[in-house]
Amino acid sequence: MKQHNEKSSTPIAIVGMGCLFPKARNLKEYWRLLCQGEDAITDIPDTHWSAQDFFDEDPKRPDHTYAKRGGFLPTTSFDPTEWGIPPMALEATDTAQLLGLVAAKMALEDAGYGDGKEFDRDRVSVILGVTGTLELVIPLGARLGHPIWREALLDAGIDAQKTEEVVERIGDSYVGWQENSFPGLLGNVVAGRIANRLDFGGTNCVVDAACASSLSAVHLAMMELSSGKADMVLSGGIDTLNDIFMYMCFSKTPALSPTGDVRPFSAQADGTIIGEGLGMVVLKRLEDAERDGDTIYAVIRGMGSSSDGKSQSIYAPRAAGQVKALHRAYAEAGVQPRDIGMVEAHGTGTKVGDATEFEALRETYRNNSDESQWCALGTVKSQIGHTKAAAGSASLIKAALSLYHKTLPSTLKVEAPNPKMELEQSPFYINTQTRPWLTERSRRAGVSALGFGGSNFHAVLEEYTPTKEKTAWDQSVEILAFSGDSVGVLQQSMTEWQTWLDTEPTDIAIARRAAASRNTFEHRATARLTLVASYEQSLSQMLEQAQQLLTPSPKQATQAPGIYYSGETSEVSGKVAFLFPGQGSQYVGMASDWVRTFPACWEALNTTDKVLNQTPSISQTIFPPPTFSQKASTLYQQALSHTAVAQPALGAISVGMLHLLQEFGLQPDAVAGHSYGELVALFAAGCMTQEDLFRVSKERGRLMAEGDGDRGTMLAVRAPLEEIDQLLSSNDWELVLANRNSPTQGILSGSEAAITKAESACKDKGYATRRLDVFAAFHSSFVSDAQAPFLEFLQNIEFQAAGIPVYANTTGERYSEASNTISTV
Questions:
Q1: 386 is catalytic
Q2: Is 217's pLDDT higher than 60?
Q3: Does 8 score more than 80 pLDDT?
Q4: Strand pairing of 527-534 and 477-484?
Q5: Which of 520, 566, 510 is nearest to 540 (CA)?
Q6: Confidence at residue 2, expressed as pLDDT on a 0 to 100 scale
Q7: Number of C-alpha atoms within 13 angstroms, CB side, residue 798?
Q8: Per-residue pLDDT tens for 621-645?
Q9: 115 phi and psi, to 5 degrees?
């Protein structure tokens, strides 16, 4: 008998992914949707069905639905000649089969097995999750109702000739039967068509486990690989069925949300919203993927499955059945629930479904650890709806990307958790904010998919490498750069771009060409132009607009958003200086998008955590779990503002930003730092190592935080410095003007009582003030007791001569090149 923690499965690598989901035409756009927290649920589009015909708020009205919102696929180009499909056969071929080819091609190209790649196609299988027959069945079946229509018309007294005309008109409203109709409506042909067109010789089949179909297919794919019957499997799920028939199915259960949104695990949850989607993954045995040098997004360590067993209702979920799948998954993966940092739940937003799923998760996880709220819980359904047969693949791809990019995407529409869950006493928190995933543990995710009839599946995914190696670019912005010796050269380059765009290149091709334009950009050229286009903008229209603005006068080009021109007459002379911030500028979640996107920023925080080795870590204090409690939010900010934490936290973020700017080729000619930031400035100039910077930061903060009684505070005052000086000299508050930040802004430092008096006096004079989020009155006698021990600590740090000028806070003068000492506090 196997022990609970004994591994028994072959590790399976996810080496490629492709998808089409609401508001996401490819993998990059899906990641953008996840990270940006976009809501892709909309009203029913005109391409589907008419709410005017079928919608009624009364859920009991026959042949009507009380829902009119959902997740719908974006318009997608499809060239039948590319796939050898006669155009006349398109009408008789279901959308799932056609778009299945598109998604399969995406996944294979992403894995590096596109056109031109030689591999053993006889050893490739296609196993997909598809529920029942396809959408095409509905109109083809409806067309066969003509005897009923004819009989009803004749019984109503309509003459025979008119009856035939009406029957013919009704029949013409539906897709007609033809030679290609039979294969075109079959679910299994979704996989068969892919295997046929891509010349794969392994197993091809589909599996139906209702809304668990995707993970069911992956389950079979893993067994195919483990048994050695295939070397590569294309798996996942496909569901393009959001027609009125499907809305009726969910309406009469009833399971749809009358308010039109999926609110998983929320106090306001009132049902689900259905969506469309296609998600495919390319799977290989891990050892084969490593041998072949494949990109590995994540490793599937185990898959648990179960049936609910006997119950009163065939469609009512049972926690006991789900617990079996959870235990089996973790046993197969050789891990404990405490090893999981993220659970991508089934989370449909139905009260019964979510409550049952949470009960099963809580029982499984709580029995393994007494800790509270250490595991992120969420579901992509809050963004794209319940994509039914594709639901598991949407979650699987989300989890794989989360592990690969070291990011925890947000779950939307949870204003307050269901109080019955007692979330704060559970192992889980609902991840309502996209956050960097920084942890000392190996990153692992659990993914659930549950289907009508008691089908339960749970997958365990693990990161392949603990380091963040690639920029997590999500195509939310694309940058084109043009340079040359005249405006005419820029216009010629843009004309070439417009001509190329007319060929309808893929998004990946556009991204590669844009990258090439940036790599060849010459910043010293006479004429320079950049276009910054968001994914919502038309690149072709931006190019046309830039052309028009450049024609009469290049200076006008800068008047349009996202268009930036610089020419010979606008050359800026001078040098670049970096100024690093000091304490008081820290805030919870700072630089989240930088850390999530760029390896340089992520690694700076990761290094800080390793060097300081404290609990909670610096990264956990900057990026704590989301909370629904204002009290907890205040405590988070207070924890980060503590001097011993704030200083190394600011150091980590500053170092990450510095390294990123340097990667982009931007080097400072001189550096300075505001208060604490002077330490980072010295690091930037090469005076100390990164590890020493973090140690010095921690010690400086610790010493400043020590002491009894009132440690004082600080107040920012916006007023001319001479007026602030006059205010201080005319009062006996024992305050100092600690920072002279600009001619019209200074910082007062002193006791709480004195700061309160100054605050009131400034208000009377009309000066704007702001309390700084600090734990002590820096640059005053309140922290003078830290000076001597800090100087002693610095004697053990090896300083190097500055490679570039560093300007000191105290004097405003440049450090001596031979100096081996720095300012203290």
A1: yes
A2: yes
A3: no
A4: antiparallel
A5: 510
A6: 39
A7: 2
A8: 999 999 999 999 999 999 999 999 9
A9: -55, 135
**Structure tokens belonging to residue 283:** 């799977």
Separation between Cα atoms, residue 567 and residue 547, nearest integer Å: 15
Nearest partner of 480 among 516, 523, 526, 527, judged by Cα: 516
In the block, tokens 């304490």 appear at 583
Which residue from 743, 737, 821 is spatially nearest to 780, judged by alpha carbons? 737
- Maximum C-alpha span of the chain: 108
Question: Which of the following is catalytic: 219, 346, 458, 674?
Answer: 346
For residue 125, list its beta bridge partners: 233
Identify the residue whose tokens are 């670019």. Answer: 473
Query: How far from the centroid of its chain's Cα atoms is residue 149's Cα?
Result: 51
Element (H, E) at 145: none
Q: How far is the CA of 682 from the CAs of 644, 656, 694, 763, in angstroms?
A: 20, 15, 12, 38
CA–CA dist 82, 113 (Å, integer): 17
Return d(Cα 555, Cα 207) in angstroms, integer: 61
* Closest residue by Cα to residue 391 from 404, 380, 399, 400: 380
> pLDDT at residue 237 above 60?
yes
Dist. CA 161–CA 442, nearest whole Å: 75
**For residues 662, 668, 674 and 679, what is the CA-based torsion angle, rounded to 10 degrees?**
70
Nearest partner of 132 among 219, 206, 216, 235, judged by Cα = 206
State yes or no: pLDDT of 573 exceeds 80.
Answer: no
Do residues 392 and 237 touch, judged by C-beta distance below 8 A? yes
Instruction: Using DSSP, state whether 159 is helix, strand or coil.
Output: coil
User: Which DSSP letter does residue 625 get?
Assistant: P
Share of the chain above pLDDT 90, in %: 78
Q: How many CB atoms lie within 10 A of CB 722?
A: 9
Q: What is the pLDDT of residues 302-354, one digit of tens each?
A: 999 999 998 777 778 999 999 999 999 999 999 999 999 999 999 999 999 99
Determine which one of 386, 458, 674, 779 is catalytic: 386
* Contact (Cβ atoms closer than 8 angstroms) between residue 769 and residue 762: yes
| Cα separation values, 455 from 208, 274, 452, Å | 10, 19, 7
The residue type found at 69 is R
pLDDT at residue 207 above 70? yes
Catalytic, 211? Answer: yes
Look at 199 and 551; give whichever has higher pLDDT.
Answer: 199
Q: What share of the chain is helix, strand, coil (3-state, %, to 5)?
A: 40, 20, 40
Checking if the pLDDT of 1 tops 50, the result is no
pLDDT in tens, 110-136: 999 998 899 999 999 999 999 977 889
Q: Which of 19, 35, 64, 211 is catalytic?
A: 211
